[in-house]
Design goal:
It is a single chain. The chain is α+β, with helices and mostly antiparallel strands. The two termini are 42 Å apart. Helices cover 42% and strands 19% of the residues. It folds into two domains: 146 residues, Regulatory protein AraC (Jelly Rolls); 102 residues, Homeodomain-like (Arc Repressor Mutant, subunit A, Orthogonal Bundle), CATH 1.10.10.60. Strands 1-8-3-6-9 form a five-stranded antiparallel beta sheet. It has a four-stranded antiparallel beta sheet with strand order 2-7-4-5, with no helix packed on it. It holds the Pfam family HTH_18.
Length: 265
Amino acid sequence: MLDAFNSSQLICTYSGYKPANRHKWGPGVRDIYALHFIISGKGTLETNNRQYPLSTGDSFMIFPKTEIYYYPDPEDPWEYVWIEFKGDEAERLIAMTGLEPDKPVVAACPADLKPYFPQVVGADTRHFEKMRTEAQLRLLLSYYVEFYPREAQPIDYVQLAKEYIMINYWRTTLTVSDIVNAVSLERSYLFRLFKEASGMSVSGYMTAYRMERARELLMSSGLSIKSVACSVGYKDQLYFSKVFKKATSYTPSEYMTLHGRDEKH
């Protein structure tokens, strides 16, 4: 249970600084991500039957369960820093960069990233220290997203509109125009895309999402109908009740009774 819980987080496991020397590792595999930044010198990474020569300013990533072998240049051995981490969130963040198992190396960065590599302390690290280390790792990875972005993918305007609704549905002033402006797309084009992708209009989706949240609150929150209405974006309780009945065939009071709750005044 604990491992399953941890796997969904961003967990920093180890970090360090390696001065110029003859240290090498592998061939072997690791079960973590390990991001390296070369401060000076040269070295080589071997993985997936390829050799990658590396030098000052370059970075390379060790991917989980991918065989690797890396070693310094005998004449000009590299100096580097590294951070090891794991978790599902790590996979999501790395996927936003240009780093991937078939492309584990990125060329010299326009900025010195060494200061942004967090330091992982001992196993007895306090919670706030772990939080700060994870925040520093997110900051570091944000530079890799900026300087080495994954090839641009088509913008999913429908998903952007849905996410905006999910974040702002509680606002009583939220309008379809707000959603259109948020995704920066011509109104009729967004409406067509939305209808094709979801089978409903933008306003219809917004109402459906609000009603879903309202059902959840009416069943289990202990809030009054007035509070539920306000919580899902309706100033007028009577209008909310009308919309709710149209969507569910029940008034809010009937819905509460159906799920074993008495109306709270």
